[in-house]
């Protein structure tokens, strides 16, 4: 069976996500391979459309299941293939010692289409922080470093390796800036029923923003107090961070200051004039104090300036 490029990328993305390949041995010693993945009933449209694409890889059968947990019913849809030898290549690529792995060979054949299906399966957009996550918890730390380096090298996307607070390994996350770039990369291939993973639910975002604002207003004094305490306890660390940031981003900071000054020149000029008018004595006192402390530096400069001007 010939597997086209679209089917292969959907399969690769799905195997990095929710999909898996079962291998079973027959009595004659031969192996048979079967693909399977499960989605919630809410993702039924996405699952059905995916199964149509994967039908080119192996004949797919869909089935819906209703499970009851603590008297609550949950719906699932299962994508399951028939036995197919065409899946042998992908089983050998993704599995080692009965464990799913990720290698550079897999990543190097992955296109934005495959990444999109990986994200639709195992990706999350956090409406609170506006970051995106890839739930790669089953992979090792070394494999996460491989993913991180690959994204940066191939797609110029910087991501972080975060440790799961529940003790479930690690996962990949993109900050706000990198999330925008990541979403632009995969947006053309996202299924219409899965666009909520791109942060498009404005109502949800507004609801969270309102909740944050309400929480801040209700707990303003406590938040400010905790902030002051934290700054006091971590004064040296914060000072170090600031210095490192300023050294690293010196040019960027200067450009932003200049840009801000150009955009708000009239307002800044008005504020400066008012401040000078209201604080004449204070400014004079600061200038006198500065002169006394730096007299040995200022006088030679003044002399040098005077002689240079006289020569002209």
Question: Can you lay out the helices and strands and say which pair or pack?
Answer:
Elements: H1 5-16, E1 20-25, E2 31-40, H2 44-54, E3 60-69, E4 72-81, H3 88-94, E5 95-96, E6 99-100, H4 104-108, H5 112-122, E7 123-125, E8 132-134, H6 141-155, E9 160-163, E10 170-174, H7 176-186, H8 202-218, H9 220-233, H10 235-248, H11 250-263, H12 265-278, H13 280-293, H14 295-311
Antiparallel strand pairs: 1-2, 2-4, 3-4, 5-6, 7-8, 8-10, 9-10
Structural commentary:
Strands 1-2-4-3 form a four-stranded antiparallel beta sheet, covered by helices on one side. It has a four-stranded antiparallel beta sheet with strand order 7-8-10-9. Strand 9 and strand 10 (about 170-175) form a beta hairpin. It has three domains: about 1-100, Homing endonucleases (Endonuclease I-creI, Roll); about 100-220, Roll (Endonuclease I-creI), CATH 3.10.28.10; about 225-265. It has 14 helices and ten strands. It has about 300 residues and is of the alpha+beta class. It is elongated, with a radius of gyration of 30 Å. The protein has helices at about 5-15, 45-55, 90-95, 105-110, 110-120, 140-155, 175-185, 200-220, 220-235, 235-250, 250-265, 265-280, 280-295, 295-310, and strands at about 20-25, 30-40, 60-70, 70-80, 95, 100, 125, 130-135, 160-165, 170-175. The longest helix has 17 residues, at about 200-220.
């Amino acid at each position: 069976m010939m597997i086209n490029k679209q089917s292969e990328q959907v399969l690769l993305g799905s195997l990095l996500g929710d999909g898996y390949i079962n291998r079973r041995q027959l009595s004659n010693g031969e192996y048979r391979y079967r693909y399977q993945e499960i989605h919630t009933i809410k993702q039924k449209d996405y699952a059905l459309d995916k199964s149509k694409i994967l039908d080119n890889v192996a004949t797919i059968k869909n089935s819906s299941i209703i499970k009851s947990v603590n008297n609550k019913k949950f719906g699932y849809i299962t994508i399951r293939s028939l036995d197919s030898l065409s899946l042998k290549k992908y089983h050998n690529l993704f599995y080692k010692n009965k464990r799913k792995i990720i290698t550079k060979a897999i990543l190097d054949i992955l296109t934005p289409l495959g990444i999109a299906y990986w994200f639709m399966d195992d990706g999350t957009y956090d409406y609170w922080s506006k970051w995106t996550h890839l739930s790669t918890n089953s992979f090792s730390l070394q494999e996460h470093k491989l993913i991180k380096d690959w994204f940066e090298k191939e797609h110029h996307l910087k991501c972080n390796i975060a440790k799961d607070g529940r003790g479930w390994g690690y996962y990949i996350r993109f900050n706000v800036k990198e999330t925008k770039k990541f979403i632009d990369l995969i947006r053309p291939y996202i299924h219409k029923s899965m666009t909520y993973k791109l942060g498009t639910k404005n109502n949800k975002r507004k609801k969270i923003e309102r909740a944050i604002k309400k929480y801040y207003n209700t707990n303003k004094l406590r938040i400010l107090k905790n902030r002051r305490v934290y700054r006091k306890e971590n004064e040296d660390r914060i000072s170090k961070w600031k210095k490192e940031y300023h050294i690293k981003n010196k040019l960027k900071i200067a450009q932003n200051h200049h840009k801000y000054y150009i955009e708000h020149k009239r307002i800044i000029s008005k504020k400066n004039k008012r401040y000078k008018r209201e604080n004449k004595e204070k400014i004079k006192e600061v200038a006198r104090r500065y002169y006394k402390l730096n007299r040995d530096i200022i006088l030679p400069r003044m002399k040098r300036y005077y002689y240079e001007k006289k020569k002209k």
